[in-house]
TrEMBL record:
Taxonomic source organism: Parasporobacterium paucivorans DSM 15970
Primary site of residence: membrane
Subcellular location: Cell membrane
Protein name in the entry: Branched-chain amino acid transport system / permease component
GO molecular function, one term: branched-chain amino acid transmembrane transporter activity
């Protein structure tokens, strides 16, 4: 997990990561700026496949078996969605915070097996209503606080003036 976060963090701060973020925002504009869309998408796909395969291998080593339900059950899908929604999409820290909160909440709700999914759903709806960008997205929006910033600082000696 830590290695995957480090690789994604470094990737997103690289030229390829900047290209991916430009493509996310506007594919046409990214292509106009000279970004090779095909190459950037293939690079992203290869990295995602590598970590998915690695996760599957680790999952097999831990469980000793693999079933389709291991990665495609409704509980698994809800858990992943909950982590991203609660923590905040579009941030590096959001899904990490969401995963921590999900694990803590599921441990706390372990004694309420019939109600745990309902309670998690209620929490997700409340967070969506109060903080539509998730906890980290809203925290950044209100305070500018980021732990793993993907923004690059301007080189020293360069200043940008507003157009008149």
């Amino acid at each position: 997990g830590v290695v995957a976060v480090a690789v994604v963090f470094l990737l997103m701060r690289s030229r390829t990561g900047l290209a991916l973020m430009a493509m996310r925002d506007n594919v046409g504009a990214a292509e106009t700026m000279g970004i090779n869309i095909y190459r950037a998408k293939i690079t992203c796909y290869i990295i995602a496949c590598f970590f998915t395969g690695l996760a599957g291998g680790v999952m097999y080593m831990v469980q000793g078996y693999i079933l389709p339900d291991s990665g495609f059950s409704i509980n698994w899908t809800v858990a992943m969605t909950f982590m991203v929604i609660i923590g905040g999409m579009g941030t590096m820290e959001g899904p990490i915070l969401g995963a921590i909160l999900y694990v803590l909440l599921t441990q706390f709700l372990f004694n309420f097996p019939g109600m745990s999914m309902i309670i998690l759903g209620i929490i997700a709806v409340v967070v969506i209503m109060i903080a539509p960008k998730g906890i980290m997205g809203t925290l950044y929006e209100k305070t500018g606080f980021e732990i793993l910033s993907l923004r690059r600082s301007m080189p020293k000696g360069i200043s940008i003036k507003k157009a008149e």
